[in-house]
Write a sequence for this structure.
């Protein structure tokens, strides 16, 4: 099970490989939110999202003879790129099973990072069966996107950095809002903060209508999303919280928050104008909650993890068109 | 005169106030350039450009009783915002003289950062006379945009960080391409590198047709631009190199490079897609040269300073529309 020792060991393995992202801020965002807003821009991480941390952590933790046979992952995009690049840098092969309707840029990037991409039809094919067959035939190790202790440990290194960087700017009590799909990043950050910054509290943020984690935290048991399609926030829509991540979030996290697709687009436009960073919708929901849900947050400061920036140019232009004024 | 001791003193004054920007990279950019590309994203600096460094350096170096009377600056935008915010954080007033045709966003931001903005007509009014009158009436101190030793020292702190960060990733011999207007950033970086990383060499990059620094370096004496209008790169078009900055650049810099507006827009689209950062045209010319002038650069690695990201949403959308494919 992931604990602070595993997270610190992951941080050691990531040193010199993953990027230490800065903590950004803008007086213009503070004014909108009515409190100090600190943003952890994981869009600046290798491959454009925090997923590289978990992928590197998991791939680097494998025994060399196991790693040498290669890895396999299921992903609609960000985990795919993280695993592909971590495998490439380790000099081993990666097979990524992606839905055929994943954003084209994410498919192209995954291929360009050296992975073999196998596309499947979400409606008609069983991705688990495809993956199991390939894994068995080639002796590949499955790198799960979130419900895997070494992946959670890798994502948790984001929390170690937040604990240090927030203290440097005098913030020791605040909510830490985290864009949340299966809960790997949220649970990893929660574990790191528990040990290193107990005054900071992780809270998941989800798209409205896809708030399985928020509802699960409220009811105390794993709840499912009614559907998985229809959100712009493709990166963070998952069927339900993980079997490993949920108990961690239930023990440590504050209540979940949710925002609309339009609020995510507005947060993207503000991150463009005020922080000069590129966010994808699913990577902008935590910032959106920090800016547009002030009454649901307590304290003088809030920290928002901006988890990814892998967005097609067309959708980004649309966000700027709708919301820049 | 600015020297390494002044730059290090400026770095001390900037500590905890200016942001230490990271050094970014992408295998996709390396492939385009045919060598390793490291990018120093000063768009992530406070107020969206490196100008905050020089402004903070100059304002913080004033005697308290002088500073208390306020400061004044001439600027079309980025220096304006840097001085306005540095003054605000010091709790003193700032008057900024801006041309009435400066980008609206830069005028709005300068006002929102607490400065009194005085607009003048470039064609018909004498900004120096307007400024001199105001400065005398109110006892304001002029903060020049580049030809001022404490401003150069502040910009030079970018070079101290590049020297450290490049060494951390194993790069000790490379050209450091710098977006260049009057030469404050270029000369400051050149001085820092001379002392701290002598294998790194600063080189100015300018818009084609506005290459006064490149021509001045070639001829050995200060050359002027024929015109100051007609470039998308408004942030870095100046009449001629500075009286203080030019001798420093002449002694230390390699030959200048220039790129077209279209290449700057293409570099903006690639920085969006591959680094997840927002650049303005004038802040993208060094990256454009790193990517599109491979034959003019020597060595296995190149460092590009991305100097600013204060771009209107409309122009940014245009860059993505033309160049994302």
């Amino acid at each position: 099970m992931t604990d602070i020792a595993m997270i610190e060991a992951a941080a050691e393995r990531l040193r010199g490989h993953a990027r230490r992202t800065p903590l950004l801020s803008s007086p213009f965002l503070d004014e909108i939110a009515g409190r100090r807003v600190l943003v952890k821009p994981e869009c600046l991480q290798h491959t454009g999202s925090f997923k590289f941390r978990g992928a590197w952590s998991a791939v680097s933790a494998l025994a060399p003879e196991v790693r040498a046979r290669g890895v396999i992952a299921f992903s609609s995009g960000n985990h795919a790129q993280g695993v592909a690049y971590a495998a490439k840098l380790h000099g081993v092969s990666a097979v990524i099973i992606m839905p055929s309707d994943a954003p084209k840029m994410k498919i192209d990037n995954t291929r360009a990072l050296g992975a073999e991409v196998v596309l499947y039809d979400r409606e008609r094919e069983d991705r688990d069966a495809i993956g199991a067959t390939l894994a068995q035939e080639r002796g590949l190790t499955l790198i799960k996107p979130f419900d895997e202790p070494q992946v959670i440990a890798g994502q948790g290194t984001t929390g170690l950095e937040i604990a240090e960087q927030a203290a440097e700017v005098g913030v020791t009590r605040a909510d830490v809002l985290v864009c949340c799909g299966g809960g790997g990043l949220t649970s990893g950050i929660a574990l790191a903060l528990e040990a290193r910054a107990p005054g900071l509290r992780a809270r998941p943020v989800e798209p409205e209508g896809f708030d399985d984690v928020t509802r699960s935290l409220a009811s105390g048991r794993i709840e499912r999303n009614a559907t998985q399609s229809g959100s712009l926030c493709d990166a963070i829509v998952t069927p339900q919280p993980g079997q490993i991540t949920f108990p961690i979030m239930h023990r440590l996290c504050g209540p979940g928050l949710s925002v609309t697709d339009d609020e995510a687009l507005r947060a993207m436009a503000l991150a463009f104008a005020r922080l000069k960073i590129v966010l994808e919708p699913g990577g902008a929901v935590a910032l959106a909650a920090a800016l547009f849900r002030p009454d649901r947050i307590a304290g003088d400061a809030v920290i928002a993890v901006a988890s990814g920036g892998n967005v097609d140019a067309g959708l980004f232009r649309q966000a700027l068109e709708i919301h820049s004024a």
